[in-house]
Amino acid sequence: MLLRKESLVVAVDGTRMLVFKNIGEAFDPELKLVEEHHHPSHKTSELGTDRPGRTFQSKSPRRGTHEPTDFQQQEEDQFVITAARKIEQIGSENEAGLVLVAAPRALGLIRKNLSPATSAQLLAEIPKDFGADDAEPLARMLAKHQV
User: What is the pTM of this model?
Assistant: First the structure.
């Protein structure tokens, strides 16, 4: 993938957001960490302890239960929405363009919360969970990525 010098790469998952700047050449990116945002991940039992609700049908003696709420997923979704606002801010300040690398679920939430102007500024959207990797494996993945 051709990644212009000074372009930014934003990597997001449910608990962190990393912003890198390409300080290398277009076909041989070298990423430098510019910003880092972390959100602590709590256990679901720490976020809520209520049991799932139950329903009773008046015509039948059967009882059913509702699906339990995934509080951890809700918390991660809130962080990703906050990250989308930060991407908006970064996009308005950057002229060279943005590459967005995010887990597929996070990428969907980010897309919903980006303005059309920021979406047009994106050079690429890569649906990949980058895990605990740092800049070097991410740069190699970007060099091999075909748009």
Answer: 0.79
- Count of domains forming the chain: 1
The enclosing domain of 105 has a CATH number of 3.30.420.60
Residue 117 falls inside a structural domain: yes
Backbone phi, psi, residue 38, to 5°: -120, 150
Residue 102 belongs to a domain: yes
Residue 115 within any structural domain of the chain = yes
Outline where the chain has alpha helix (H): 44-47, 71-93, 104-113, 116-121, 135-144
Q: Would residue 3 count as lying in a domain?
A: no
- What digits encode the pLDDT tens for the residues 78-115? 999 999 999 999 988 888 889 999 999 999 999 999 99
Which of 92, 137, 122, 95 shows the shortest CA–CA distance to 9? 122
- The count of other CB atoms within 10 Å of the CB of residue 146 is 5
Return all residues near 93 (Cβ < 8 A) that are at least 6 apart.
none
pLDDT digits (tens, 9 = 90+) for 42-73: 666 666 666 666 666 667 666 666 676 777 88
Is the distance from CB of 86 to CB of 106 less than 8 angstroms?
A: no
